[in-house]
Amino acid sequence: MRIVIAGAGIGGLVVAQALVRAGDDVVVVERDPGVAATGGYRLHLDADACVVLREHLPPTGWERLLAGSARAAAVPRLMVRDHRLRLLATARPVPDEEWLLVDRRLLRRVLVDGVEDRICWSRTVEGFGESAAGVVARTTGGDLEADVMIGADGARSVVSEQLLGRPAARDLGYSAVAGRVPLALADGLADLVTESGVLAFGVDGTGVFLSRSVRTETAAVAGGVATEDADLVWSAIAATGRISTDPERLTGLLRRWDPRVRRLPGLSDPATIARFPFLAADPGQELMPWPANRVTALGDAVHAMPPTGGQGAATAVRDAGLLAGALESVRRGRVTVPVALADYQRAMTAYAPAAVAESLQPVRWMRMLERPAARVIGRVAFPVAAAVRSVGVVAR
């Protein structure tokens, strides 16, 4: 089959790997100038995502991911702390399940390997239409005829918007500003992000996320990433009107936070500081109400979710595996393309809304803590919760 994929993000590249290895004629259209443009945190890939990657990556690619990832069952995938960095809770993986914490840049490089000649960099999809052969993708570099088109073009997806007749995601009114600090300079914070990410809540409705990111794949593959080869990746989260990329204003926003957190904006190279809004699909609405034909979507293009839940990448990978399996049925002559896409869309909507809903919960907590009464409660509840947890750990 001839297949056009809009977007070379995580989900788009996973399905590209699967389809290319199955022998399909695949073209990926990507607005980035190249794979080096990737940024972001380490990503949590759950057991379902690991099954997909193990199946559809070449063995050497899977080995690269394992070598550069944290994967111990005893390690919490996320620690929840307050603005003083007191531990409130941990989110652990299900015992005995395979899971990975992997740097986004490493994952994307692994996923590009073997399909890079199929990617049209610095090019965007502007829409699609019908053709005698099936579908035509309208792109900035010209039209592309295909049997199937897959929208993997993110939360502001052009493909999904045309299918739905409206944007697939809404702005939540919250934004994050992220930056990077060499781990060696992240005074006392390195130990907090050795294996796990940290999501922290302030009593004034602000939030902070901390994670670690390697700078080079060489360091990652060697295992036990050296301090000088790693960064602390941080983000400050608040209502959009309260947040800025200016380091001084960010420091003011974090005035109630632990001094080590407050210093992070000033320690960051300004070139690494970027702002992004929180966009999300509505888990209460049908995510894919359009009739199945020859165009579909996956990942953030259909079920965008804020990064506060740590589920976006894993859910996109799961989508990609499900869609690859549906198209394999077409390849074997068992079903037509529209039936295969209908099966995929029905199966995906059975799990994606729950992931969106869970990812929205931390934003609801921050919104609640903006209220004066909740701030008073938070000032009392946070230290009490931390103390109770500490006593429980000591008792065990």
From TrEMBL:
Start and end of every FAD-binding domain? 3-163, 289-357
Q: Which Gene3D superfamilies match?
A: FAD/NAD(P)-binding domain (3.50.50.60)
Q: Does the keyword Oxidoreductase apply?
A: yes
- GO molecular function terms attached to this record: FAD binding; monooxygenase activity
Sorted alphabetically, which keywords does the UniProt record give? FAD, Flavoprotein, Monooxygenase, Oxidoreductase
Q: Name one Pfam family in it.
A: FAD_binding_3
Q: PANTHER family, alphabetically?
A: FAD-BINDING DOMAIN-CONTAINING PROTEIN, MONOOXYGENASE, FAD-BINDING
Please identify the protein, giving its name as recorded: 2-polyprenyl-6-methoxyphenol hydroxylase-like FAD-dependent oxidoreductase
Q: What organism, scientifically named, is this protein from?
A: Kribbella amoyensis
